[in-house]
Amino acid sequence: MSGLWELEEEPDRAITVHPELGSRRLGEHMWKARAEEFDLLVGAANCNIVASQRQTVRKAVSATLLGQGQTAEIASLVEIHEADVVFVDHPLSPVQQRNLETAWDAKVVDRTGLILEIFAARARTREGVLQVELASLNYQLGRLVRSWTHLERQRGGYGFMGGPGERQLELDRRMIRNSIGALERDLEKVKRMRATQRSGRQRKDIPTVALVGYTNAGKSTLFNRLTTSDVYVADQLFATLDPTLRLLELPGGLRLMLSDTVGFVQELPHELVDAFKATLEEVIEADLILHVRDASDPMQTQQAKVVHDTLQQLGVVGDDSPPVIEVLNKKDKVEGLASFHGEDITTSRLALSALTGDGLDELTALLGEWLQRDMHELHLRLAISDGRSLAYCHAHGTILSSKADDDLLDLVVRIGPAYASRFNVDGDVHFLR
């Protein structure tokens, strides 16, 4: 199924199957939203959907998940539409995947495999590629038997040692485990490098604000608006995979690092959550989280729960976790959407449009207010000739008042603690080290 990996090739003809098991029956509205999201994922994998089928499964069949009649029905659709691949919106065991491929005479990909293949096609940085490879290898480890079923009949030997098929399987498993170990070591180096970069930012007193949210909520558009960057933006799921950090300068010399991260999705494969922890540490270690929500999506409440649950899985929920500010995006699509300002900054909820820029001033003002909570007010007496110190105050703080007195300049400056420590005292005169 090369079309999933090489996006410039002609799209594969795909059928999507949406099993609805008795244990997770959904209402009509929720089912439709989930089915549409899955079909968008398939579209993001460069596939052309020729048929989409809803299947109610009263009891899962261990061999095929679907019942015999349902399996035959999909087989007919595959033949009629000459489909190359069938995507099943449900986790499949290796045996189920193999049996369905035999029954349908087509490639079969479950939800986890689909998301992994999209990530593999989209990852660009070395770190992103390493993370996808690690997740894919963990996923493949339990599916090796599919490649060697033709050897399983060739058992032989002395009882304590299997035949060639078993030996080949064990060799492949060992090779994959060795590759997993090498990737984990490489990612550990990335983790240490990120920790070094974070400690450098902390020494410079530059806090980090992380954008999180459901996929396609508009995080990258907001990121580009705030930082005048050119991060890739598209109206599709998982448009952003690799993390991006940019310095954001606010009025009054205030600065912060803004981090754009991969969007969350319901039932995100646990292989990806584990593999992407090095990337998501920018969220874990952030000083503030902006939860960007698509206010125009009728499923935004369920999507917000997915984000909250994923953050909880990452350990980013609790008393010691960074504060979270809700940002309701796509205000241009929702009539009457308004902001709410709580007594505490982090209880505020902002309504804005990253596309039009409406409400961005309100967000930057709130970020500035948040940054100034720990600011120092210094009464400085600088020599009139000390243009360097005056320029430093303008660059890194806000001058609240200024008064010339003979050869000295009396200033009251609001400035961050790290910048305030750069001033020494010689008598009554402060100067920059």
Please describe what this structure looks like:
Helix 1 runs parallel beside helix 4, helix 4 (111-122) packs antiparallel against helix 5 (126-141) and helix 5 (126-141) runs antiparallel to helix 6 (164-203). The protein has helices spanning 28-44, 68-81, 94-104, 111-122, 126-141, 164-203, 219-227, 270-275, 277-284, 300-313, 360-371, 387-396, 417-420; strands at residues 12-21, 47-57, 85-88, 107-110, 208-213, 244-250, 254-260, 288-294, 324-329, 349-351, 376-383, 397-405, 408-415, 423-426, 429-432. It has a six-stranded mixed beta sheet, with helices on both faces. It has 433 residues and is an alpha/beta fold. The protein folds into four domains: 2-121, Rossmann fold (3-Layer(aba) Sandwich), CATH 3.40.50; 123-188; 206-372, P-loop containing nucleotide triphosphate hydrolases (Rossmann fold, 3-Layer(aba) Sandwich); 375-432, Alpha-Beta Plaits (2-Layer Sandwich). Residues 1-7 and 146-164 have low confidence and may be disordered.
Radius of gyration, in Å, reads: 27 Å
Number of structurally distinct domains: 4
> What separation lies between the terminal Cα atoms?
63 Å
| CATH fold topology of the largest domain | Rossmann fold
What is the class of the largest domain in the CATH system?
Alpha Beta
Structural class: alpha/beta
Number of strands: 15
Itemize the secondary structure elements and their pairings:
Elements (H helix, E strand, L loop, with lengths): L11 E10 L6 H17 L2 E11 L10 H14 L3 E4 L5 H11 L2 E4 H12 L3 H16 L22 H40 L4 E6 L5 H9 L16 E7 L3 E7 L9 H6 L1 H8 L3 E7 L5 H14 L10 E6 L19 E3 L8 H12 L4 E8 L3 H10 E9 L2 E8 L1 H4 L2 E4 L2 E4 L1
Parallel strand pairs: 1-2, 1-3, 3-4, 5-7, 5-8, 8-9, 9-10
Antiparallel strand pairs: 6-7, 11-13, 12-13, 14-15
Helix pairs in contact: 1-4, 4-5, 5-6, 6-9
